[in-house]
């Protein structure tokens, strides 16, 4: 996932690319912070938009997240959790960025 300073993001996966907007509550450097996302329609989700609410926990030994999401039709998506890492985004325009195999 690439975060841009203007509130836009791009997710790059083997299956496809996803774009949307986000709002950060807190800072990426905080121990706990949340990000709310609204994705643009994607073929992966039958051209539906989705809303994600992720909580990130950075305890310096393990970086974990919890995700809750719904589709624009009100359908809940299964809760997800996992680990993450953060790196500085040095890409100004992610449009042409692709998944590297």
Features:
0% helix, mainly beta, globular, seven-stranded antiparallel beta sheet
Would you give an account of this structure?
- The protein has 101 residues and is mostly beta strands.
- The chain has one domain.
- The chain is built from no helices and seven strands.
- It has a seven-stranded antiparallel β-sheet with strand order 1-2-3-4-5-6-7, with no helix packed on it.
- The protein is globular and about 40 Å long.
- The mean pLDDT is 85.
Quick structural overview:
It contains no helices and 7 strands. The two termini are 16 Å apart.
Detail the topology: elements first, then pairings.
Elements: E1 2-3, E2 8-12, E3 17-25, E4 32-42, E5 48-58, E6 63-71, E7 76-83
Antiparallel strand pairs: 1-2, 2-3, 3-4, 4-5, 5-6, 6-7
């Amino acid at each position: 996932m690439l975060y841009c300073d203007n509130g836009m993001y791009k997710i790059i996966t083997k299956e496809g690319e996803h774009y949307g907007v986000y709002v950060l509550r807190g800072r990426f450097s905080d121990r706990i912070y949340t990000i709310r996302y609204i994705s643009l329609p994607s073929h992966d989700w039958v051209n539906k938009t989705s809303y994600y609410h992720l909580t990130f926990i950075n305890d310096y030994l393990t970086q974990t997240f919890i995700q809750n999401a719904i589709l624009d039709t009100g359908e809940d998506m299964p809760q997800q959790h996992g680990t993450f890492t953060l790196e500085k985004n040095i890409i100004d325009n992610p449009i042409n960025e692709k998944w590297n195999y």
